[in-house]
């Protein structure tokens, strides 16, 4: 008796392809965490103003925008496998070269290249996981990718705070450590097979059957996904056509409204802690917030498994909007209240961010999945880059409370958009 490709039992290969995809998320969180700490040492050495600090903080995010969109589209054209391997070669080389920079322009370019590599993997990694893993376990596997972002960010915080005290050039060693996980991922990914769904979409049925037999098992029924191969499908124009426009718009808006406050706030977390009253005990506040980030990411796995995608996203936006709204309107309130709300915001933001890797691959069919996931990731990082660049400028210009109110308005837009447009994809059979 045959089993449908979406309903096969979970096996070791499913776990392996998910584990190999952890690399982009860990690297993204790690590189964001390290630059936030390194900037404290780089700024006085290189005499950087607020604009350059914002640009360097946003540099990898700009690269993720370019890499996600360009290489996500290319992944739909030439396949996932080769790009899935080469993107971490780029990350490893650029990470090492950061050690030798002499000015902000060189550092900006290298971090842009790191972002391009991470962006490519953001488009291709979740796409591969979604296209291999059975639907019963797809949400949990995809959500676990975001937890590794938090692990990377937290690891960067603790390692960074240790290294930056070792000398004036310790920030160079800190930034270069990003090459270590990149090289490890690169080596482990050698031999990763092509996506059978992509092969089927190109009419290469026999190749797909061979990969499924080797990695998934024999007797797997692929008739449901092999019925209508389309070698010419794929492209950004189709994402904005009548069939996919609503999902594309929803994906872009929800993703941006979630990550713009996230990246802006946590790139400049030391500044935020001073503003909420933890200037004299910054390490304790920072450590506690990082632990809440990690706890939220792990707790979010349970929430993704138990709740529908739509319900979890709506209520997350409601809590995030309310908590940051109080902070923005009453920034001088009692420190226990303001910091407590900040802890709630941190936990819920981390938990709901698990959907960033779950929703996008489920919104689009195979022939558009790389482009769709790439577009949503790229657009979100462009918004994140803008928010990260503007936050220190806004705080110095219009004040902390007004700046947080602007981020609250973005979360409110996310709430309204999700209520109006979010589809439910939890039990979806991928096409």
Mean pLDDT: 82
Query: Which regions are unreliable across 5 or more consecutive residues at pLDDT < 50?
Result: none
Could you tell me the number of beta strands? 2
Which H/E pattern describes the elements? EHHHHHHHHHEHHHHHHHHHH
Distance between the termini: 22 Å
Biggest pleated sheet: 2 strands, parallel
Return the structural class. mainly alpha
* β-strand amount: under 5%
Broad shape: globular
How many whole angstroms does the radius of gyration measure?
21 Å
> Total number of helical segments?
19
| Main sheet: strand order | 1-2
Classify the helix fraction into a percent range. over 70%
In short:
Helix content is 79%, strand content 1%.
Structural descriptors:
two-stranded parallel sheet; mainly alpha; globular; 431 residues; 1% strand; 19 helices
Question: What does this protein look like?
Answer:
The protein has helices spanning 12-46, 50-78, 81-97, 104-132, 135-163, 170-176, 179-189, 196-201, 205-215, 223-226, 236-239, 245-267, 269-275, 282-306, 309-329, 335-352, 355-363, 366-398, 400-421, and strands at 3-4, 220-221. A two-stranded parallel ribbon has the order 1-2. With 431 residues, it is an all-alpha fold.
Protein topology:
Layout: E1 3-4, H1 12-46, H2 50-78, H3 81-97, H4 104-132, H5 135-163, H6 170-176, H7 179-189, H8 196-201, H9 205-215, E2 220-221, H10 223-226, H11 236-239, H12 245-267, H13 269-275, H14 282-306, H15 309-329, H16 335-352, H17 355-363, H18 366-398, H19 400-421
Parallel strand pairs: 1-2
Helix pairs in contact: 1-2, 1-4, 1-5, 1-6, 1-7, 2-4, 2-18, 3-4, 3-7, 4-17, 4-18, 5-6, 5-14, 5-17, 12-17, 12-18, 12-19, 14-16, 15-16, 15-19, 17-18, 18-19
């Amino acid at each position: 008796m045959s089993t449908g490709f979406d309903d096969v039992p979970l096996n070791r290969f499913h776990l392996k392809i998910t584990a190999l995809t952890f690399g982009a998320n860990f690297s993204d969180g790690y590189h964001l965490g390290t630059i936030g700490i390194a900037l404290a040492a780089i700024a006085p050495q290189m005499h950087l103003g607020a604009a350059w600090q914002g640009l360097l903080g946003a540099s990898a995010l700009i690269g993720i925008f370019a890499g996600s969109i360009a290489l996500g589209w290319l992944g739909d054209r030439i396949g996932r496998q080769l790009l899935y391997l080469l993107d971490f070669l780029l990350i490893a080389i650029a990470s090492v070269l950061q050690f030798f920079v002499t000015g902000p322009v060189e550092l900006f370019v290298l971090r842009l290249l790191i972002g391009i590599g991470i962006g490519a993997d953001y488009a291709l990694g979740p796409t591969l996981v979604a296209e291999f893993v059975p639907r019963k376990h797809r949400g949990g596997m995809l959500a676990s990718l975001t937890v590794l972002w938090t692990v990377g960010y937290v690891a960067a915080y603790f390692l960074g705070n240790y290294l930056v005290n070792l000398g004036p050039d310790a920030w160079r060693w800190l930034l270069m450590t990003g090459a270590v996980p990149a090289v490890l991922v690169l080596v482990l990914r050698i031999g990763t097979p092509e996506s059978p769904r992509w092969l089927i979409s190109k009419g290469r049925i026999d190749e797909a059957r061979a990969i499924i037999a080797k990695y998934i098992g024999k007797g797997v029924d692929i008739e449901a996904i092999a019925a209508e191969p389309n070698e010419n499908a794929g492209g950004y124009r189709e994402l904005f056509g009548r069939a996919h426009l609503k999902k594309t718009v929803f994906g872009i808006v929800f993703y941006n409204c979630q990550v713009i406050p996230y990246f802006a706030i946590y790139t400049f977390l030391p500044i935020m802690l001073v503003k909420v009253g933890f200037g004299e005990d910054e390490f304790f506040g920072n450590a506690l917030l990082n632990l809440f980030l990690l706890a939220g990411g792990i707790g979010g796995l349970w929430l993704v498994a138990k709740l529908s995608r739509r319900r979890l996203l709506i209520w997350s936006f409601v809590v995030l909007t309310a908590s940051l709204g109080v902070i923005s309107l009453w920034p001088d309130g009692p420190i226990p209240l303001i910091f407590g709300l900040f802890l709630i915001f941190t936990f819920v933001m981390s938990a709901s961010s698990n959907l960033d890797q779950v929703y996008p691959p489920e919104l689009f069919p195979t022939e558009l999945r790389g482009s769709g996931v790439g577009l949503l990731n790229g657009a979100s990082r462009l918004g994140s880059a803008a928010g990260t660049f503007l936050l220190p400028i806004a705080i110095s210009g219009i004040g902390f409370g007004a700046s947080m109110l602007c981020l609250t308005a973005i979360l409110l837009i996310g709430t309204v958009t999700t209520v109006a447009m979010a589809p439910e994809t939890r039990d979806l059979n991928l096409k």
